[in-house]
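In the current project phase, the collection of sequences with tokenised folds has grown. A sample record is quoted in full directly below:
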Amino acid sequence: MTDLKRLYHDLVRFETELWAAVDARLRRDCDLQLTWFEIMQLLDHRPGLRVQDIATEFVITVGGTSKVVDRIEKAGYCRRKPNPHDRRSALLVLTSTGKEKLGLAAPVFEDELERRFGAVLGGAELDRMATGLKLLRAGAFGTEQLTA
């Protein structure tokens, strides 16, 4: 039987190491931090989200999300546009500069994931891992909260 405490330790440490490695690579090769990349990637796939939507997607605070979005906007990678359904909020879209930066960063991100996952695990193992993580997240947090 698998030692669940050891599994927890390995999973948490791996996530921390993975985040640090991908972040370092994106910063080095693209001058873009992983936090920004994640938000920009989401906006590329789903333009017109609100800060609240991004916070919900990544299970982080609205205040923290707003601060990161402010920085991304200041860098010229996204912009706010009026929300036609709610004047109290704005919708976020990538700028052409943001799309260009994301286009440079995406292959670097994918290459780093290949190095950390694909070069170590085979296809069947990766499929089992993906299925297991989905099941764990759904069981722990309920499928209605799973969006990321």
Observations:
- Residues 4-141 form a domain with the Arc Repressor Mutant, subunit A fold (CATH 1.10.10.10).
- The radius of gyration is 17 Å.
- The mean pLDDT is 91.
- The chain is about 70% helix and 5% strand.
